[in-house]
């Protein structure tokens, strides 16, 4: 079983870094894809982070494991491999690895997850990390989640396989949850119950119910999922505002225009 350092050694070659072209230690958001793997909407969010004066790191959980998109669609989207609690090990490892970079302000981090990635974040925030093997890593307690100041959850998976979806969060960063009203993976009632439980345990949460399908911000149509460019723009803006409200750029750190 990997330690956090060993897991990051596997992940780092497949992580892509975005942000202002300088060496300043800036706040940084880590982006975790859904069960379909890396998709073209993630770099758009990374550019929004850059425009807010943040760095962004897109973490690929599949390439280090030698998994293709087709394999992941069959085995991960079906729940056979890499359940959310296991994905959380990647999240812990990436947070620790990224925080040590000289161009990252390790005290001001955020996490963002889409669908399966959101599931992993929820597991990381709620699990008792007191024993080896929790969240699929040998030393889960070694991750400092106090670094995480904000979480962005885009239509996180909270279906029947997410057994711990109602578990109280132990770490409570400022959180934005986006729910899709026509999400085929959960009922709106279930998603609202999960959000209510998060608020009930003290998570400072903002929510937005987007009138679209699961993955509405991803430029593709795979029924029942359908891309909605107008809703996508709104999601991008909400993501950027979350970052801007979480860690205002210190004096001398100018924001830059998104590409």
Description:
The chain has 259 residues and is α/β, with parallel strands linked by helices. The protein has a single domain, classed as Rossmann fold (3-Layer(aba) Sandwich). It is 32% helix and 21% strand. It is built from 7 helices and 9 strands. The chain has helices at 4-11, 41-51, 69-75, 84-99, 116-126, 188-200, 229-246, and strands spanning 16-18, 26-32, 55-59, 104-114, 148-154, 174-182, 205-213, 221-222, 225-226. The strands form 2 sheets. It has a 7-stranded mixed sheet with strand order 1-3-2-4-5-6-7, with helices on both faces. The chain has a two-stranded antiparallel ribbon with strand order 8-9. Helix 5 (116-126) links the parallel strand 4 (104-114) and strand 5 (148-154). Helix 1 packs across helix 4 (84-99) and helix 2 packs parallel to helix 7. The longest helix is centred in the last third of the chain and has 18 residues, at 229-246. It is globular. The termini are far apart. 47% of the residues are buried. Mean pLDDT is 95; it is low at 249-253.
């Amino acid at each position: 079983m990997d330690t956090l350092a060993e897991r990051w050694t596997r992940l780092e070659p497949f992580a892509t870094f975005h942000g202002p072209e300088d060496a300043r230690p800036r706040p940084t958001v880590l982006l975790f894809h859904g069960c379909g793997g890396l998709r073209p909407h993630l770099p758009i969010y990374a550019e929004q982070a850059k425009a807010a004066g943040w760095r962004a790191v897109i973490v690929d959980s599949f390439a280090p494991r030698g998994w293709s998109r087709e394999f992941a669609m069959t085995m991960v989207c079906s729940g056979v491999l890499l359940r959310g609690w296991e994905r959380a090990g990647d999240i812990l490892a990436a947070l620790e690895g990224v925080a040590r970079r000289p161009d990252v302000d390790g005290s001001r981090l955020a996490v963002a997850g889409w669908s399966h990635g959101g599931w992993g974040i929820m597991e990381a925030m709620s699990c008792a990390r007191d024993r080896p093997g929790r969240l699929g890593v040998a030393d889960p307690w070694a991750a400092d989640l106090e670094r995480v100041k904000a979480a962005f959850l885009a239509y996180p998976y909270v279906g029947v396989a997410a057994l711990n979806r109602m578990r109280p969060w132990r770490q409570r960063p400022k959180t934005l949850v986006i729910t899709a009203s026509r999400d085929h993976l959960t009922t709106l009632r279930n998603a609202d119950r999960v959000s209510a439980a998060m608020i009930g345990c003290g998570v400072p949460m903002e929510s937005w119910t987007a009138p679209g399908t699961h993955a509405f911000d991803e430029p593709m149509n795979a029924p029942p999922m359908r891309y909605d460019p107008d809703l996508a723009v709104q999601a991008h803006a909400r993501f950027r505002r979350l970052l801007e409200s979480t860690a205002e750029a210190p004096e001398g750190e100018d924001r830059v225009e998104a590409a």
